[in-house]
Amino acid sequence: MLTDQQHRALAEQGVLLANFHVPLGPLPVAMAHSDGAALPLLKAGAFAADLIRFPPAGGVPEHTHPGAHMLFVVGGVGSLLTAGVRLDLRPGVCYLAPAGVPHSIHASARRHLSLVSVANDHRDAGSASRLNLT
Q1: CA-CA distance, 62 to 21, in Å (whole number)?
Q2: Per residue in 56-96, pLDDT tens?
Q3: 37 and 30 Cβ atoms separated by less than 8 Å
Q4: Does the CA dihedral 21-24-27-31 come out positive or negative?
Q5: How many CB atoms lie within 10 A of CB 132?
Q6: Strands (E), the chain
Q7: Nearest 5°: CA angle at 125, between 120 and 129?
């Protein structure tokens, strides 16, 4: 565990740290164009990370993003559909979504799906400009 002084020293060098766990309660930001919710984790300019959760049977329909993003599954199960291929999502799976590539994400019927999304052209989770429905 770092001290406050160590955190400040790292921040002065542009290094940001976030300790998080996957909370069981609601996340604070309702996501645009989906039934998901988000918790902002880190942001440095246009580069940022959010914890995202979809409820059972929830998700986001086919869409694209202005920038690339990586999705790290940290809880629950679900699927990602891209280029006609269905990918199983479970803890430990990482997926890279290039800018402009259509994809959809769905939690299983019985379990939530929690992801950490790291984007290089980040838009706030509640912003309609975060994604474009196709």
Answers
A1: 28
A2: 999 999 999 989 999 999 999 999 999 999 999 999 999 99
A3: yes
A4: positive
A5: 14
A6: 29-30, 37-44, 47-54, 59-64, 69-76, 78-82, 85-89, 94-97, 103-107, 113-119, 132-133
A7: 75
Write down the residue that tokens 């989906």 correspond to. 34
List Cα–Cα distances, 102 to 49, 81, 98, 124, 133, in angstroms: 20, 9, 9, 19, 9
Task: Kindly indicate whether the domain formed by 30-133 is annotated with CATH number 2.60.120.10.
Answer: yes
pLDDT digits (tens, 9 = 90+) for 14-61: 766 666 667 778 899 999 999 999 999 988 888 999 999 999 999 999
- Dihedrals phi, psi of 103, to nearest 5 degrees: -160, 160
Query: Percentages helix, strand, coil for the chain, rounded to the nearest 5?
Result: 10, 45, 45
pTM, entire model: 0.84
Cα 22–chain centre separation: 12
